């Protein structure tokens, strides 16, 4: 084979290799937009659920949600006031520990419900105050009357009366939460209402056992 023929053959081989490489590169490039589109679609799906991120307040609410938050804030404040008194005056360590747990649990819930009302543009207290609202009385006594009675007791007498009044107070919270579950709309408020029912029913059972052992 002459030198000229060898060069022609070599040139053809190089041309063929470059053509195949170009075809292969074109296949990869054609696939990239598909992958990118799939990734973009997945990202859009993941962020378009409409659910609020952690720490954000769901704006959807109705009058029942507003009333639940307003009333439960005041109700929790009353429970904390009673619990803090029990931490000072309880005759038994068991009652004191229970009171500390009540105060520790309900403080953060007050902050949570306050943030909802602010985000919803609602007042922090119900129209007309708390008069006439169910779940706010303890054996026919107001918060002020219950506190006055407890402040006049000590030792085992205090423990017994505190447990009796706190059971009634918790029953009021359960009643209010059940109303929220029936009439409310906001998912976060409904979730808290169920939590309050679960937590306070458990504490009611615990306090009833304490009363039996006094």
Automatic annotation (TrEMBL):
Pfam families: DUF305. Residues 65-211 form the DUF305 domain. Keywords: Signal. InterPro entries: DUF305_CopM-like, Ferritin-like. Gene3D superfamilies: 1.20.1260.10. Residues 1-21 form the signal peptide. This is DUF305 domain-containing protein. It comes from Georgenia daeguensis.
């Amino acid at each position: 084979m002459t030198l000229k023929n060898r060069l022609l053959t070599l040139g053809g081989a190089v041309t063929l290799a470059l053509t195949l490489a170009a075809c292969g590169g074109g296949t990869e490039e054609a696939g990239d937009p598909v992958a990118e589109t799939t990734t973009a679609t997945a990202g859009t799906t993941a962020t378009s659920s409409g659910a609020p991120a952690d720490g954000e307040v769901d704006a959807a609410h109705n009058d029942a949600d507003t009333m639940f938050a307003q009333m439960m804030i005041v109700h929790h404040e009353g429970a904390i006031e009673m619990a803090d008194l029990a931490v000072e005056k309880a005759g038994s360590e068991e009652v004191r520990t229970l009171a500390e747990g009540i105060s520790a649990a309900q403080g953060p819930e007050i902050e949570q419900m306050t943030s909802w009302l602010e985000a919803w543009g609602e007042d922090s207290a119900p129209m007309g105050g708390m008069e006439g609202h169910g779940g706010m009385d303890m054996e026919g006594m107001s918060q002020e009357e219950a506190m006055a009675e407890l402040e006049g007791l000590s030792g085992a007498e205090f423990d017994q009366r505190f447990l009796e009044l706190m059971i009634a107070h918790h029953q009021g919270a359960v009643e209010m939460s059940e109303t929220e579950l029936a009439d409310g709309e906001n998912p976060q408020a409904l979730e808290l209402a169920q939590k309050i029912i679960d937590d306070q029913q458990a504490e009611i059972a615990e306090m009833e056992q304490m009363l039996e052992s006094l």
